Amino acid sequence: MDRSLQGVSGPGRVAGPEEGISTQELALAARNHGLPLECLRYEVTPPGLHYVLVHYDIPAVDATGWELTVGGLVHTPVALDLAALRAYRPVTHRVTMECAGNGRALLSPRPVSQPWLVEAVGTAEWTGVPLRILLDEVGVEPGAVEVVFTGADHGVERGVEQDYRRSLPLDVALGDVPEVLVAYAMNGEPLPPQHGFPVRLVVPGWYGMAHVKWLRDVTVTDTPFTGFQQSVAYRIRQSADEPGAPVTRIAPRALMVPPGFPDFMSRQRVVHPGFVPLEGRAWSGWAPVERVEVSADGGGSWTDADVGRQAGHPWAWAAWRVLWTATPGEHVLTVRATDAEGRVQPMEQPWNRGGFGNNLVQQVPVLCVST
Ligand SMILES: Nc1nc2c(c(=O)[nH]1)N[C@H]1C(S)=C(S)[C@@H](COP(=O)(O)O)O[C@H]1N2
Ligand SMILES: [Mo]
After folding, report:
1. Which residues of 302-316 are buried (b: 16+ CB within 10 A; e: fewer)?
2. 223 and 268, same domain (yes or no)
3. Given the DSSP bridges, would you call strands 261-262 and 200-202 parallel, antiparallel or unpaired?
4. Is the pTM of this model over 0.70?
5. Is the Cβ atom of 209 under 6 angstroms away from ligand 1?
6. Which residue, among 152, 164, 192, 154, has the nearest Cα to 50 in the 3D structure?
7. CB–CB of 294/342 below 8 Å?
8. Are residues 112 and 32 in the same domain?
9. CA 158 to chain centre
10. Ligand 2 center to residue 101 CA distance, Å?
């Protein structure tokens, strides 16, 4: 038996044609839960219903004695405790966050990893200090190119022992659209342990991996960060041997509150004939969602849904709604979002080895039965 880390931590791979979900993938799915899709009905996701993704363990972090260090290529490095962070003027952003691997388990072939269907999304009100305010205060020195964020969690991935660590380009870290937050509250309460207590990064519009939880250090650097979560993971690749492109902002996606009622085991949706209101949420990390269309015939014809923007919340999902007339028989409902920059969800799966950023349209089979 291989006693090195490689023995417990294999390379990334794609499932074989007939390979079902493994017990390892099930273990990940049981730890990392999604948003029950009926809870798309809430504009702000209630506590406990927001999706969770944790690579290693939820670390034990004691708020007493906890400090966030901000240093590297700066004039005056600082260490800030929670009281020091709370002393800044608090800023709140309502942000829809989605895991870059959302939709992965529906891909064919299936990348073997956290097996999300489509439910790795949630919207929360995050409160904290804008990162640019902290960086202005410590004084970023000339020659800085990136900012590296380190979490308090530690583990092994693909044979590499590591702290969870990601970077942002300096212009993104200092930007005000989106405004990156060092957040200490979620929906007005201290962060729950699974969402990064006591402090996490929030990068509105970007996929989840950028929002480093259990944040303990911020370091300004003069070279691009090449750590595991930046250069190995979270790259869009067709083959294992290419460097790939980094995963950044969230591609547009619309999801539907599953109509009617479900079967316990199969989750098959059942409705009765007549008017069935269809509703859900749609988002894009690039631009506001401008259009949501629904098809009841597999994409042959489309009906525009009413889209309600959240005034004052540019980083939060939009509600959509349309009325469908159900007739007895089997139907497949499809929903498709388009953002203001013309990005539209594809009808064919966008595939890459990690299953990142794929935003295939959602398809919901519905059985309509007479009462
Ligand atoms: N320190 C740390 N930060 C992390 C992660 C992690 O495992 N460790 N997971 C990332 C990923 S992949 C996602 S999708 C989001 C999930 O955030 P949530 O669990 O609050 O929804 O956190 C990100 N931040
Ligand atoms: Mo993620």
Report:
1. beebebeebeebbbb
2. no
3. unpaired
4. yes
5. yes
6. 192
7. no
8. yes
9. 21
10. 6
